[in-house]
Design brief:
The chain is an all-alpha fold. It has one domain. It is 93% helix and 0% strand. It has 3 helices and no strands. It has helices at 4-61, 65-126, 132-182. The longest helix is centred in the middle third of the chain and has 62 residues, at 65-126. The radius of gyration is 28 Å and the shape is elongated. The N and C termini lie far apart (78 Å).
Amino acid sequence: MLPLQEQILVATKANLDAQFAMYASLTSKTLEGIERIVNLNISAAKASMEESAAAARQLLAAKDPQEMVSLVTAQAMPTFEKTLAYSGHLVNIASSTQSEFNKAAEVQLAEVSRKMNELVDEAAKKSPAGSESVMAIMKSALGNANASYEQLNKTTRQAMEVVEANIASAVAQMSQVGQAAKS
């Protein structure tokens, strides 16, 4: 077995390596999310330009103001629906990116927690007589930190679920309003 100081150094190095890996993973997930948003925006911009040109041609071909008002009214509803769809795509991208972040953080923190518990257990085995209470305090502190993190993580997930449900409900309500306006 390695002396305790060497074990601490090895554990610290492993922890730093794991953190760098997590940061690389989170950076990759961030860039993937940004790429998806950019692609969505490019697609939306292309579609918008094509639709605007078509709408302008229709408006220019209108024979009287009444026909022009009818065309503008008819074009408003598809635009509203496309805006809702775009918003839904954005929410989906943000939600999936947030989910990936949470997964990466959970894996990393679980691994760090496991290693810290192993290190404390090893230190407890090698500690001099009479230091049992200090080791018990360290174990208790680690247990409390783990429990706090798990509660925070659970609360965060619940909050995200509520936000996603509220957004989905709002999109559904706006869609119903759009459908009612069509009728």
